[in-house]
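Convert to structure. Protein one:
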Amino acid sequence: MSDHSTHPHHHHEHNPIHSHFEGQAPQVIAKAIGVTFVFMIIEFAGGWISNSLALVSDAAHMLTDIGAMLLNLFTIWLARRPTTLTMSFGYHRAEILGALLSGLLIWMISGVLIYESILRIQNPPEVKGPLVFVVATIGLMANLLSMKFLQAAKNENINVRAAYLHVLTDSLGSVAAIIAGGVLWLTHWRPIDPIVTILFSGLMLVSSWSLVKESVGVLMESTPNHVNPVEVKGMLLEIHEVQEVHDLHIWAVSSGKLALSVHLISEQSERVLNLANRILEDHFKIVHTTIQVEHPHHFQSKRCYNCVPIEMKRT
């Protein structure tokens, strides 16, 4: 039987091993950058010649795509730097900062486009519909090709997901420009160009909300949505020797990298530690844990400040 004084802490962590998709993240992002850059030039030229705000806005969003994806490449490189004594979690949060900046970049460009569109609605200029239609169709094909590159890895890395989101919203912009070009070609109704730009910008704002929300949640060290802390507590309490569970904290260091710390009250240290870590890894994929096991007599002899409410096992 081991008490708190002989086994005060147990720290359990697996060495980080990048998945196949995470390892391929820089390559797929680089391919998407190449495709986006070529067709950004085509859309800027087409928008300038046709005098279409919808095309120019789509090209401008492609430019933010490139900037965001370059930022994503940098943060992926930074996140893979080794840990140090002062940076004990490494640089994984760089991925979250990059994703947050990508989301905010979408918000900024959306605001500019909406403002410019409102000005254009008041006095819509003449726009060459056929050229808008053809160039926007080419842009849509380019976006779909970039999305194909990013599709496989988008659920494995938040930076790839951010890049995918940029290209997805850009695809919506291409669809909007195609609609605008078709309407202008057939009816010459000029307000359609700024109207579809406003709709496209609104979709950009809505689609980027989840990315910004997730990034802020990680930075605020909130418990990830897919992990239920009540369920975690309940499973720890199911360990026969555990009498109480308190000070439970679950947070994400980065996307897919969870960490946990908790105090358990038990007379059995080693067995409880092993069982607890096995449960956390098997059921919740949490491998970075700091678990403190305290003997009941030791715990009762001190007062606990700043503790979350204690949950006791009912017998």
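Protein two, convert as well:
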Amino acid sequence: MEIQKNLFPKEHDMFLNDKKALSIIKKVESYSEIWWEMQDVLTLAESLHEIFQEKEIYKALKEKHKDIIIDEEIMMAINLLAKDYSDNRNEFQKQRDDFQEFISNIGILPALYFLSPKLAMSLEYSLSGAIVTYAKSFNSSIGRVKLTDSVKTIFKDNIELIGFHNNLIDLRNKHYAHTELRANKFFLKYWAHKNSNKINIEENLSHSQARFCETFDYNSFISCINIIMAYLKNQISSMTQTLDNHLSYEQKELLVKISSDEAFEKSGIKHNIMSSREK
């Protein structure tokens, strides 16, 4: 039997007057939204890590697996499978393999410069977007609940990661959202003519620009994101259980009715709920 899934009828009178239920629902929805945003940030952080620290990653993997000994028979089987694949590749597979070999020969970042120089030069803004989205989870906003527990609770007193997290928030607040760090500096210059008081003011400002993406600590960033995502999952599980325990018999009866009653399906209540959420 297929289980019918429905939106919680927050606009129904039976829920409108239940502040605790509405508060839990809003928090669960907010935490779910934050989890998906963190998933996107994690994907971006791992991609940037791979681009800027591929040599370190390769060394770490090589060191990790240096003592692994593969049985001779297994190695023969692997070689046979590899030969079978090589002999029977289609054109797409050949092109893909050639491209992968090209990347492994020159590196991911040079290959990206080869494919799209403008994109490669914009990776700093990819990192800034990841940090801004990460920090947004800890800031209040209209329509969404922020992470309410203290940083110490979320990171379980992991001093190093708490310090790194605080640096991320500072980087967002003082550099990406404002200019307090003065990481990017612009200078107005002029030159004077000898033996006269005539000067020329340079129209194109000289500047220095900080690029955090090249030396950023992606390992710590990824650790922070994974911890937050695990925390969110636990909180969502706990809150949904709390909501289930809180709902009255009448409220649960209404939810069952919504799932099964064709009359409700055709009624104006469902239309009002959907219309309200689309605004």
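The chain has a mean pLDDT of 83. The beta strands are 185-187, 190-192, 199-201, 206-208.
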